[in-house]
Amino acid sequence: MIMRDSKLDTFRRKIHKSNPLWRYVVCRAGVVAVLLPTASALAASHEMVINTFTGTDGANPSAALIADPNGTLYGTTTTGGTSGLGTVFELAPSTTSKTGWVEKVLHNFRGGADGAGPVAALIADSSGILYGTTMTGGAAGFGTVFQLKPPSTGFTTWAESILYSFKAGKDGASPEASLVRDSSGTFYGTTYNGGSSSLGTVFRLTPPVSGKREWTETVLHTFGDSNDGSWPEAALISDSSGALYGTTATGGGVQGDGTPFYGTVFKLTPPTTLNATWKETVLYRFKGSLDGANPQAGLVAGPNGVLFGVTVAGGSLVYGNQSGTVFRLTPAPEGEDLWKEDVLHRFTYGGDGAFPAGTLITDASGTLYGTVEVGFQLGGTIFKLVPPAWGKSTWTESSLGMAGGADGTNSIGGLIADSQGTLYGTAMNGGSKNAGTVFKFVP
Questions:
Q1: Strand duo 340-346 + 361-362: pairing
Q2: Are 403 and 411 in contact (CB under 8 A)?
Q3: Which of 22, 139, 229, 276 would suit a FRET pair with 98, their CA atoms being 20 to 30 Å apart?
Q4: Whole-model pTM?
Q5: Distance CA 323, CA 309 (A)
Q6: Neighbour count for residue 382 (Cβ, 10 Å)
Q7: Which residues make beta-bridge pairs with 381?
């Protein structure tokens, strides 16, 4: 199975992905399905690189983008910039060219208290303030939650401030996922490390009370129990009751034959009484073979409470062919805990690609779209997965395009789409400086 063994891999396989369309960024209670135009609107797509990173303006983007109502894109790079520690960038359509885009670096991370190594997507509020996480840096060096305020009238500089610095103790460490924000302005997120077992946490960050400046962090759940998951990497989603859903990349306890489980899908239910604890329920434990292994991406909600996701490994009984899956989870029958998993597609390394690491998006017809890190030309592939026709059971997978070389390679951040069905994404490597690209696929 794919297991994490270094900080380099921490930068390589990122899936952070908040709900990507701007209208969903101010997260309200409710499991969110990102809607695209129907699959027929995406026929005959072609790829266009709209930005190539050079290093000085950032390098190695590993997260999905977000977009404002004007079509301006916002994102993060994990490295590069003036200090080599990552950036927040803006990419706006050119006002003088129909095909050109203008990039602007909004913030260069400096390390230290400022934070470093953003590997998650941004979210934004209705005033255009951007929020995100850094995996390292901060007052104790274990990551931050930050905000970037747009410049005031007559100014050009965005103002960064740190809302919270993780201390690497029970409060968590190394946040690798984007945030979820509720209607009160409270944030929810995950940390990859930290907690009482150093295997990650789910946390809440509450705005300052009147007259104060400090945000309050509360750990809602610490991973590490014998049957629990470990190392959550992806963003959470929520339902109308305020319950949170997510994945852990590993963990889940031990199977009957003594082998470990390879990651989980979990639910956190809010308390019904004041000061009570949140209840965690493991909805599914991955066995590591045909059903998939190591879910590193977030979930997307379908009708009737169904959840869709991907695993970066598994899908085959043969180790070398375990290239990942797309799965569906159906709510458990009344009185039961474990949900029913169906594998909708199994990737083959030498065929349709391998290692789906980005959160899926879906259109109004239920078609799913995503990326695999490695395609059959080793550059990565955008894929779509079409639901079965009436009376059938097989989903149909096809590639919309390839990335490679100057186009970019290793697309691991997931996709977003505009109202015309154009897909936008990032490639972590490739481009003229091998520092990554931003691309779009146009119908």
A1: unpaired
A2: yes
A3: 22
A4: 0.89
A5: 15
A6: 26
A7: 372, 402
**Cα separation, 207 vs 146, whole angstroms:** 13
Look at residue 315 in the predicted model and tell me its pLDDT.
94
Which residue type, as a one-letter code, is found at position 388? P
What is the distance, to the nearest Å, from the Cα of residue 155 to the centroid of all Cα atoms in its chain? 32
323-337 in b/e burial notation, b at 16+ Cβ within 10 A? Answer: bbbbbbbeeeeeeee
In a domain, residue 257? The reply is: yes
Residues of the chain with pLDDT under 70: 1-45, 226, 320, 376-380, 401-405, 443
Domain that holds residue 87: 13-442
* Residue 342 host element (H or E): strand 340-346
What is the SS3 assignment for 383? strand
CB 64 within 8 A of CB 417: no
Rounded Cα–Cα distance for residues 301 and 266 (Å): 14
Q: Is 163 within the bounds of a domain?
A: yes
Residues contacting 248, CB < 8 A, separation 6+: 200, 223, 228, 229, 230, 231, 232, 233, 263, 264, 266, 295
Q: Is 147 helix (H, G, I), strand (E, B) or coil?
A: strand
Rounded distance, CA 230 to CA 169, Å? 16
Residue 5 belongs to a domain:
no
428 in Cβ contact with 420 (< 8 Å): no
Q: How many CB atoms lie within 10 A of CB 386?
A: 16
For residue 45, the model assigns a pLDDT of 52
pLDDT at residue 376, rounded to an integer:
55
The pLDDT value given to residue 20: 29
Contact 245, 238 (CB under 8 A): yes
Alpha carbon 336 to chain centroid, angstroms: 29
SS3 55: strand
Q: In total, how many domains does the chain have? A: 1
The SS3 assignment for 39 reads helix
The CATH number given to whatever domain includes residue 286 is 2.130.10.10
